[in-house]
Amino acid sequence: MSTLIRTIRHLPRPTIVRSATFTTSPRLRIKEDATREPHELEAKKNEQLEKQRQGKGHWHEELASSGEANVTADREKVHDHDSHMEELQKQTAQSSEKEHPHGKAE
Question: Residues with Cβ < 8 Å from 78, sequence gap 6 or more?
Fold first, then answer.
């Protein structure tokens, strides 16, 4: 019996190799859910800089990342909640109609 135990002890044991998987994702610099060409971004940037020189500059949500847009929306001061909600609903409906003209709301 002891010979059998010695033989079992000296059998090669299965080796388990664990490795971490390496993944990458594309680098998204501006709005994560929008695709833009570099020349479009450059044109918007130049337009924004020109407006700032004239003293008419303002923040452009379409150039911001989703995170920046969310933070700005969270910080917005709202005086009349009901009218603000109605305005947001109108903007959403208009945006949806622009993107999907065949599904216009009644």
Answer: 84
- At 33 the pLDDT is 63
Closest C-alpha among 89, 84, 88, 40 to residue 62? 40
Q: Are 63 and 44 in contact (CB under 8 A)?
A: yes
- For the ranges 6-20, 62-76, 90-104, the lowest mean pLDDT is seen at 6-20
Q: Which of 33, 100, 94 is nearest to 67 (CA)?
A: 33
Query: Do 33 and 66 touch, CB atoms closer than 8 A?
Result: yes
What does 19-74 look like in DSSP terms, one character per residue?
A: -----------S-TT----HHHHHHHHHHHHHHHHTT-----GGGS-HHHHHHHHH
The dihedral over CA atoms of 48, 54, 58, 59, expressed in degrees to the nearest 10, equals 30
